[in-house]
């Protein structure tokens, strides 16, 4: 049993010694001290279904034995940082990652966070093309560092400092709130026309690149209409740009049908960034690109002290092995489809549910006060999250106003967990 400080004591320490910008999800804060598979335990030993997976980081399950074995072995053998000497782990992990990539995407860079990965990707785009302007999407999240914040498009995440030079934000291809809905077969092409418009009217006509999440996560699980990325990539490439896919949330089999989110749109990017689920809980992120683009970075020294250290590479490789061995992609598809069908039924019953959507185990439920005006139901969303937590289910929140519930659990959930999720959900909505 847990013997450390109480939640109240930890809260007090946090208030006194940690950043005042840190936010807590719940009015009644919870503290977690242990995790196993898809479950997480508070200090009193109470079990919760981890429906957010530590913000989409726990891909194969908490403390997975195969992952632990790999990382514990490496921890006991050599903890080291740097790439200035040879080590097998980084080379083998790079080879494994490249084996999952289409086209000529095979050169891997390792860093420590999604923000760093996107920063590096944008550096590559600019260094390779000699252009500066980037096109990103409204409602995106790409990081909290200067360049990531520039690419991000939510006022809530952006500080009022000069970070945004050169990034232009095109219309979010949101079939629920945008002008072109799911019943429009040309919606993808129409939304992508805004990328061309922005290039023509907002830049010199030459750009460094286009960056987009394959499914917008923080923005509230926005699934782009078919054909969107294909057309957007065509416009970006015609203006001299390279295309960056941010797979930080959608990658590593989470969408169920494909290993990478961009594959659901039938495109091959020039640069792919990844983090979160790649490490199943450790600080590991990567950028994968083509040898041609990579050659440009060799013109200067590029270095990252902890990027690709032996411990995280052992962990990353073990995570990929588990996804394969346990068929977690198929499970993400089966369980995701099952939950989505259940959510569709709940939508019939509860008027506050405006939209349900997602792919595999990256699902979103958008809450509205009125289905016609689509006025966001923000406080109700917070209340539902709190009730679900009290009933043993953790969920995420997304969207500019925080009115979208996110479900992105470890990909090892089973049918019992899916039924539990739907039951808790139904009960929580019934309390409103
Ligand atoms: N890209 C996406 C799509 C993300 O969701 C996030 C984190 N929420 C990031 C980048 C930044 O990752 P990190 O917090 O590891 O820097």
UniProtKB/TrEMBL annotation:
GO biological process assignments: glyoxylate catabolic process; L-alanine catabolic process, by transamination
Record's keyword annotation contains Transferase: yes
Required cofactor(s): pyridoxal 5'-phosphate
InterPro entries on file: Aminotrans_3, Aminotrans_3_PPA_site, PyrdxlP-dep_Trfase, PyrdxlP-dep_Trfase_major, PyrdxlP-dep_Trfase_small
Annotated GO MF terms: alanine-glyoxylate transaminase activity; pyridoxal phosphate binding
Family annotation (Pfam families): Aminotran_3 (PF00202)
EC number: 2.6.1.44
Alphabetical UniProt keywords: Aminotransferase, Pyridoxal phosphate, Transferase, Transit peptide
EC class: transferase
CDD domains: OAT_like (cd00610)
PANTHER family per record: ALANINE--GLYOXYLATE AMINOTRANSFERASE 2, MITOCHONDRIAL, PTHR45688
UniProt subunit comment: Homotetramer.
Similarity field: Belongs to the class-III pyridoxal-phosphate-dependent aminotransferase family.
Full protein name: alanine--glyoxylate transaminase
